[in-house]
Specification:
The chain has about 90 residues and is an alpha+beta fold. The chain is about 40% helix and about 30% strand. It is built from two helices and five strands, in the order E-H-H-E-E-E-E. Strands 1-5-4-3-2 form a five-stranded mixed beta sheet. Strand 4 and strand 5 form a beta hairpin. The termini are far apart.
Length: about 90
């Protein structure tokens, strides 16, 4: 049974920001590839959300979209929230 996936406003903003960065500094083709990689990871998450790396608090999970970008999500009863995207080259939030 697959869970429905919802994007938070922050997830949408950070995703759009990363896509814009890739379009500006690389190519539209690479930006399209990033979008496709993100879409391709959503189905496995909806089917088996516990598969990916759980962070210290136990609720938030991390999945690498590319070497440079991670997506963070939270599993709820009956659905999944995409929380935000993170450029792995940034200093971590502590």
């Amino acid at each position: 049974m697959s869970l429905e996936i919802f994007w938070t406003d922050e997830a949408t903003e950070t995703f759009d920001s990363i896509v814009l960065f890739i379009e500006t500094n690389c190519t539209e083709n690479e930006a399209g590839s990033f979008v496709k990689q993100t879409q391709n990871i959503l189905f496995p998450i909806s089917e088996q959300p516990d598969t990916y790396h759980r962070l210290i608090d136990g609720y938030v999970r991390q999945v690498f979209i590319t070497k440079q970008t991670s997506m963070y999500y939270e599993i709820h009863e009956g659905y999944i929230s995409i929380l935000f995207f993170w450029d792995n080259r940034q200093v971590p939030i502590l």
